[in-house]
Design a protein that fits this description.
This protein is about 25% helix and about 30% strand. It is of the alpha+beta class and about 350 residues long. The chain has a seven-stranded mixed beta sheet. Strands 3-4-2-1-19-16 form a six-stranded mixed beta sheet, with helices on one face. Helix 2 crosses helix 3 and helix 4 packs parallel to helix 5. The relative contact order is 0.15.
Length: about 350
């Protein structure tokens, strides 16, 4: 009964706010949650370190705390609006369907009634990407997990994450959401650059293919790209733009480019901030029509997500650093965009 009363109050407040401002707001969030593993040993992946007897002594207490912290963060993300929790959540570095189920069933998120979309990828660490969506807001249509085939300098296959593409209807508007986690910079930026450029080409193929089939569709691509908004993968392959332009042909708009140029990042390394976590989209989300359009973007970095003292003060408060357990949240800050839509409801009704 208490839960029902809370839901009714949230719903009433949202409607009143929307009617007063004549807009409906939806939030899209991406969060790399830093190695969200369960405590069980999967013999098909290299997850041994993330078990009770492994290097990190990953036990039930640590796992339960991490689930609670991620849920807390996702719930708090929209405190500046009347939205209770994000509408769409892209996640990276999750192990399997179990951790997603435990996350969506946490008391901070349970009332949001999230659905899960997840496909196992061939990543050798056993980490994947996934999508959570509010069942009352988004109706999935088709799901594709697109494999990235890359080879290292010795000619051996480098097994990495798939790109998850989900199309469906957000309150009647046709959308496609793509969740990414591109190859890391391990081994050096230049050595690994071709892998991320291959990921960018795959992402562009997905976007172009979906756009050709459904010209009216609104496409949002999000993820941990291990590249910044100004890197070649974005500017030369995806050809993203950081400013709104007037042109006949559709393009990809990346609101994170302006944020990055202001010196804001989602993760830090050797006192240098990077904005690897990004959300960009097709330019039809910039149009001022009766459908959804882009409102604003940001990096969510409240004090509780930051390291308080020491040489890493101000960095994301992570679970582990150099093998030491810090009981933190993640080594990345989450990023978000807000979409708005004019309501057709008359105030007098």
């Amino acid at each position: 009964m208490k839960l029902l009363i809370v839901l009714i109050c949230i719903s009433v407040c949202s409607i009143i706010h929307s009617q007063e401002n004549n807009y409906n707001i939806e939030s899209i969030v991406f969060y790399n949650v830093e190695n969200l593993y369960d405590t069980l040993n999967d013999t098909l992946t290299f997850d041994d370190d993330r078990t009770p007897g492994g290097k990190y002594q990953w036990n039930l207490d640590k796992y339960t705390l991490k689930i609670a912290q991620i849920a807390k963060t996702l719930k708090a993300l929209n405190n500046d609006t009347y939205i209770a929790t994000p509408t769409i959540i892209g996640l990276a570095e999750i192990e399997n369907i179990k951790v997603l189920t435990d996350l969506k069933n946490h008391e901070d998120l349970l009332a949001s009634n999230y659905g899960i979309i997840h496909e196992d990828s061939p990543d050798e660490r056993g980490i994947d990407v996934a999508l959570l969506y509010k069942k009352d807001s988004f109706i999935p249509n088709t799901i594709h997990s697109r494999r990235l085939i890359i080879y290292n300098e010795k000619g051996f296959r480098d097994y990495t994450r798939d790109q998850l593409a989900v199309d469906g209807y957000l309150h009647g508007t046709y959308f496609c959401f793509i969740v990414n986690h591109w190859p890391s910079r391990s081994g050096g930026v230049q050595r690994s650059k071709p892998f991320r450029e291959a990921a960018a080409r795959l992402n562009k193929q997905i976007i172009d293919s979906v756009s050709r089939k459904h010209p009216e569709i609104k496409i949002i691509s999000m993820g941990d790209f291990n590249d910044n908004p100004t890197d070649d993968s974005f500017k030369n392959i995806l050809r993203t733009k950081g400013n709104k332009v007037i042109q006949d042909e559709p393009y990809l708009y990346n609101p994170m480019e302006k944020i990055y140029k202001k010196g804001i990042g989602s993760l830090a390394y050797q006192d240098k901030w990077s904005l690897f976590d990004q959300i960009y989209f097709t330019s039809n989300l910039l149009e001022d029509n009766n459908g959804y359009r882009f409102w604003k973007a940001g990096v969510y970095a409240p004090n509780y997500l930051k390291t308080k003292t020491g040489k890493y003060k101000g960095y994301p408060l992570r679970s582990y650093a150099s093998g030491v357990y810090y009981a933190g949240y993640s080594d990345h800050f989450p990023v978000y965009i807000y979409l708005v839509r004019k309501l057709t409801i008359n105030k007098s009704e």
